[in-house]
Amino acid sequence: MIRKILKWTGISLGAVLLTLVAVYAFIATSMNSRINKAYSFENEEIEIRSDSATLARGKHLVAIKGCQDCHGNDLGGKLMNDDGAVGRLVASNLTKGKGGLPSDYDRADWLTALRHGIGKDGKPLIFMPSHETTLLTKEDVSALIAYCEQVAPVDKEMPENDLGPVALVMGYLDKMPLLSVEKIDHNLPMVATVDSTEGVALGKYLAVSCTGCHRADLKGGAPVAPGFPPVPDITSSGHLGSWSDRQFITTLTTGKTPEGHTLKNEDMPWKMTAQYTRTELASLYKYLRSI
Ligand code: HEC
Ligand code: HEC
After folding, report:
1. How far is the CA of 263 from the centre of ligand 2 (A)?
2. pLDDT of 106-116, one tens digit each?
3. Which residues, listed in sequence order, are joined to residue 124 by a DSSP beta bridge?
4. 244 and 218: one domain?
5. How many other CB atoms are found less than 10 A from the CB of residue 119?
6. Claim to verify: residue 56 and residue 170 sit in the same structural domain
7. CB–CB of 128/113 below 8 Å?
8. Are residues 100 and 134 in the same domain?
9. How far is Cα 216 from Cα 123, in angstroms, rounded to an integer?
10. Could you say which of 150, 182, 214 is where a domain stops?
11. Is residue 271 part of a domain?
12. Which of 65, 70, 88, 123 to mutate to test the pocket of ligand 1 (most atoms within 8 A of CB)?
């Protein structure tokens, strides 16, 4: 009797394992073919000026859009993750130093990366949030390109991306934004400029950078990855509903909330939000309170 039970337990466990292996093999194959798919898009014309105001704007954008959080303070590239489960995630060296962008990486390549989420070879950029940069105005994209093109070269060879099983499965389930090329509406024309005066319109434009974690409706949700805290609602129905604009600005510039909670920069990138201008923060507040 016992033997029979043991035998059947063994067989069922074996069957479960085999099914899991088959499911994983299916997911890995499907993700790998999506990762290696070649795309081609026609780029719009954008004018790139390199005057000092444009460069200053580009520098500000690099700070407030998190480019440095991923690509490193000097944009020389960063190993964002390297373990067996999630795998190796590498943000490229964006400079013209050794190990940086190829010498023939031109403005059209920059535009393609920021607008469509693909590399010079036409293959998807992995984990680069181009679904957010694609919503930047022409003015801002050109300021970013002008600024990035002239940063000091950094000699730093970076290893290749190498996704582990957790990243592949999370990417497959759409729990991790691996392939921004698939999320982008490639036919949506770029907006020329945004109203830069304080108000809801500017706030809405800036809040795109918050949606990656706080969700499209900004009402928060489950942690972005295992080990992180849940993401709070930052609309009028959350804590923000009872905060003054000053309290909101203090939270985003010091990481301390009116409720006495301290935000860790690794969870909520307040060192990035601290670099927004007062006008930008006040606009974010107005927009978030309006929804
Ligand atoms: C969440 C992290 C993250 C943020 C934020 C981010 N990047 Fe990236 N970016 C990446 C990763 C990872 C890659 C490498 C993709 C690959 O190799 O497939 C990348 C690739 C790129 C590339 C393509 C380079 C190449 O090797 O082909 C450009 C250009 C780029 N990023 C510019 C930017 C700029 C400008 C910003 C800020 C507006 C930015 N990135 C913000 C993670 C990020
Ligand atoms: C990388 C993910 C990420 C991004 C990007 C992000 N946040 Fe957060 N944010 C979080 C997490 C996680 C928390 C909660 C942290 C905690 O509980 O300690 C949080 C907390 C907050 C809080 C505190 C809310 C409360 O109820 O106490 C505010 C306000 C906030 N974020 C605003 C923003 C704004 C505005 C943006 C965009 C400019 C933004 N966040 C971008 C992840 C993010």
Report:
1. 8
2. 999 999 999 99
3. 118
4. yes
5. 19
6. yes
7. yes
8. yes
9. 26
10. 182
11. yes
12. 70
Query: Which residue out of 131, 214, 219 has the highest number of ligand 2 atoms within 8 Å of its CB and is therefore the one to mutate?
Result: 214
In the block, which residue shows the tokens 């490229």? 92
Together in a domain, 64 and 121: yes
3-class DSSP state of 91: strand
How far is residue 80's CA from residue 88's CA, in Å, rounded to a whole number?
A: 8
Q: Is residue 18 part of a domain?
A: no
Q: Is residue 17 part of a domain?
A: no
CA nearest ligand 2 atom 26, residue: 239
Taking the C-alpha atoms of residue 196 and residue 53, their distance in angstroms, rounded to an integer, is 14
Structural domain count of the chain: 2
178, 210: one domain: no
Confirm whether 192 is domain-assigned. Answer: no
> Is pLDDT of 1 > 80?
no
Whether the CB-CB separation of 163 and 169 falls below 8 Å is answered with no
- CATH number of domain containing 243: 1.10.760
Element (H, E) at 284: helix 278-290
CA–centroid distance, 70 to ligand 1, in Å, is: 7
Task: Dump pLDDT digits (tens) for 7-52.
Answer: 888 888 999 999 999 999 999 999 999 999 999 998 888 899 999 9
Task: Name the one residue in this structure whose structure tokens are 């290749």.
Answer: 160
Domain that holds residue 123: 52-182
Residues 265 and 228 in one domain: yes
Among protein residues, the one with the nearest Cα to ligand 1's atom 41 is 67
pTM (2 d.p.): 0.93
